[in-house]
């Protein structure tokens, strides 16, 4: 490398620490995660930070951002998770949601709301509900009964 900086120096130069997150200011991939090149290999910045501070990441295991900030590399905001657990820790509704509430959609006639939660490849449903608030509470209760890594739902209760 011609600039004389070590990989560690290059890595830490790309982090802006806030009161909570350590935001990656370097390159970002198409999914919104920080990336950095080391010896012709492209590394995910959050995975590198986890390994440097907490140790090896087992094969097939994801790193979950507890803070929901894909650019964060703060090791206290990162935890090991299966893909299922990582997907449980959602921060909002899907992009194609018609209600803007995770797991809540309108009934076919559009007059009420229903809840649908996927767990272990099986759909669980509840409702109908008169109000979106009632449906949202039911969705949270249903997810909390099945999920282990849904932090925002647990705070909402």
From TrEMBL:
Keywords: Endonuclease, Hydrolase, Nuclease. Residues 44-87 form the HNH nuclease domain. InterPro entries: His-Me_finger_sf, HNH_nuc, Homing_endonuclease_His-Me. Residues 88-100 have a biased composition (Polar residues). Residues 84-103 are annotated as: Disordered. The keyword Thylakoid does not apply. GO terms for molecular function: endonuclease activity. It holds the Pfam family HNH_3. This is HNH endonuclease.
